[in-house]
Amino acid sequence: MKEDRKQSAKKLSNSVSKKMKKSDKKTKLHQVKSRFYYIFWGTCTSAVVLGQLYVGIGYREMAIGVNTLTGNINRIFRFVR
Q: Confidence band (pLDDT; 50, 70, 90) for 56?
């Protein structure tokens, strides 16, 4: 009886492993990316990073300009008092 269980378990594990091998092949084929995929997403990533740098530099220049303007306005009001 134990031998029958062992044999049936072995047959079951063999059939399961065969099915898994077939499904593994299918999933591996779906996971292969083309060269265009990496070029596209690399370009998108670099565009976003460069855009963030551009916005950050513009914000810094604007902040310096606003600080200069408010400093000048404060000097004028001190002079008027």
A: very high
